Input
Amino acid sequence: MLRTRDDLGMRPGATSMTVANTRRLHMITWGCQMNVYDSGRMADVLAPLGYVPTATPDDADMVILNTCHIRDRAAEKVFSELGRLRVMKQAREAQGHRMILAVAGCVAQAEGAEIVARAPYVDIVLGPQTYHRLPEMVARAARAGGTVIETDFPAEQKFDFLPEASAPRGVSAFLTVQEGCDKFCSFCVVPYTRGAEASRPEAAVLAEARRLVAQGTREITLLGQNVNAWHGEGTKGKPSNLGHLIRELAEIPGILRIRYTTSHPRDMDDDLIAAHAEIPALMPFLHLPVQSGSDRMLEAMNRRHTAAEYLAIIGRLRAVRPDIALSSDFIVGHPGETDADFQATLELIRAVGYAQAFSFKYSARPGTPAAGAALQVPEAVKDQRIQEIQVLLRSQTTRFNGGCVGLEIPVLFTHHGRYDGQVVGRAPWLQPVHMIGASTLIGTEIRVRIVEAHTNSLAAMQIPTPFIEERACA
Ligand code: 5AD
Ligand code: SF4
Output
């Protein structure tokens, strides 16, 4: 699980706010890219109040934990971090300073009452739909004792009330276009913590994209819990879908690459598949979670498609875009999963051949249908299955990355590497690519030769001559 400290909050432009009344904001972000995006937006909301990012919590005037509730013992991790922060808060108070402590994200949404009961020193508990109200909550927390709680799903759309981003978000940026989910998979908390599916209007998305490009962004990843369910009224008054939105985005001068995540197989419509054929900026990579290869399990999971239907979608995508690379999520040990079901998952993985994929042991989420289901799978069986699936998936990634060695491919360079003179970018199929090269390459897309494949990245060499050969990784 991704855990970032201030990685969005520490943007250079944010320091322009350090005039009068500067306050330090420290953010800890767990979970998905949407949480990373949300942390950035919370920093934007707080910037006009004088909050600037700080890398450590001990001198912070406000600390926000942006939490994830999707798997594991998420709440316990939050409580243990809160215990550590409580000590710092008390130390700052002893020096006559206030530290506002806020818990945001899906744990706040799902366990707000528990947080207040177990950690009454927390000042603000706010769910993912209420970030635009943060300044008001900060003011209330400053005035009142006790915890300010906002975990409603307000009638107004949070997107409409968030300010424009105040600082550049880098060569590659996320842009949330959709939130929430109506699919109600048996195991998943998202429909309860993020609420019903809501799409951001096309005009607002295009406006944010144009602002990003003006600030130097070259690659945009459209985000949504169910991003391909995005729909709205198009700029020309007609109903719009994600395929159409991608076409509109591709028209914006300066956008070199477009990606979207995470998708549901049920929403892979003809338009979106056609966009993969027709839009060169749409990268040949798709994260399309299937969760299981067994029809019995897919039904138990309420996925509302079969393994054959999933494979048919992959077939159609590959027919129009032969070099498309695929990624998925898998859950092992969902209640009722037999050895035969698990074997069906391994078979599906062999049939698809993934470039990368994530696999998780099923973990019961309170309040979800699967949590109360009979036939929970013993932990030891889950352990064995997760090892087996990961060996298979790792071998596919190794094979895919190994197949890239020797190819000349376009790489969009996004930032400096860890070593002097090193620049880092991404291949079309999302692998990070490291190369020795000039800083001026950052923000540009050039063809490079892949010379080495590592477990999760590729090494490249600059080439003086242009493109020679184009083929997908094996
Ligand atoms: N247990 C294990 N994995 C889960 N995921 C979602 N909920 C659970 C759960 N209760 C996984 C799914 C999803 C990904 C984001 O997290 O595979 O696609
Ligand atoms: Fe959760 Fe994704 Fe299923 Fe929605 S589609 S309930 S977000 S796993």
Notes: Residues 181, 183-185, 188, 190-191, 225-226, 264 surround iron/sulfur cluster (ligand 2) (CB under 6 Å). The mean pLDDT is 89. The chain has 13 helices and 22 strands. The two ends are 28 Å apart (CA to CA).
